[in-house]
Amino acid sequence: MIITIDGPAASGKSSIATEICKRLKMVPLKTGLLYRAVAYILVQELDKTINIETPNELSINDLNFIKDITYEFTDGIAHVLFKGKDVTEKLSFSSIDQIASIVSANKNVRELLLDVQRQIATKYNIVADGRDCGSVVFPSADYKFYLTATAEARAKRVMADVARKAETRTLEDVQKDIELRDKRDKERDVAPLIVPSDAITIDNTNLDFEQTVQEFLKHIKI
Ligand code: C5P
């Protein structure tokens, strides 16, 4: 079984995917973590400078390291490993947000990660969340969702995120960053963020977490 949840930044896709997985005994495939891993490895491990103007300069050769990225699911938690080393906790910093959104516009990055994602789906029943899961990666998914909320509501949730509390950003900065990422994701040439034609759209601007989960569950029959 494959369920996809696409949507703009910080709409709660990953948290909802994790919760649905708990309840339906499935495995979350947080595809954003893979793009974040590529960004992190390029900048931190390989000392590459990512140019915001020329995101397509990464060749397949430059991206050879993607074969050393693995996505594992242990004790109910998703882990991303690079050459066997767990890098998951380094991936959610806001410094990685924008770089991930820049490198994700690169067609070679997307092509290489396509295989990684599809391989994972051969091993588990998954809930995949991202930007192109229903439109490109898993076009024949059993259920497709598009989860959205206003940029302001999403920025407020990011501000409330415990893991990000140590960072000193204002609500306005966070909202601006979210809008910039959304714009890039929607306007890129390869696999842009769209509402898949056969997706169920859920707007959770005025829904709490449990209400959002219920909105999903009422559509899923297993
Ligand atoms: O979902 P998350 O915020 O972790 O994703 C980080 C970045 O990776 C996004 O801003 C987006 O640009 C990119 N991404 C993507 N396609 C996906 C998942 C994430 O382009 N399927």
What can you see in these coordinates?
This protein is of the alpha/beta class and 222 residues long. Helix content is 43%, strand content 17%. The chain has one domain (2-216): Rossmann fold, CATH 3.40.50. The strands form two sheets. A five-stranded parallel beta sheet has the order 2-6-1-7-8, sandwiched between helices. α2 (31-45) packs across α3, α3 runs parallel beside α7 and α6 (151-160) packs across α7. The model has no long low-confidence stretch (mean pLDDT 93). Bound molecules: cytidine-5'-monophosphate.
- CATH C-level category: Alpha Beta
User: Reading side by side through the largest sheet, how are the strands ordered?
Assistant: 2-6-1-7-8
Order of helices and strands: EHEHEEEHHEHEHHEH
Determine the structural class based on helices, strands and strand pairing.
alpha/beta
> How far apart are the termini?
9 Å
Tell me the major beta sheet.
Answer: 5 strands, parallel
Contiguous low-pLDDT stretches (5 residues minimum) are none
Described by the principal axes of the CA atoms, the overall outline is globular
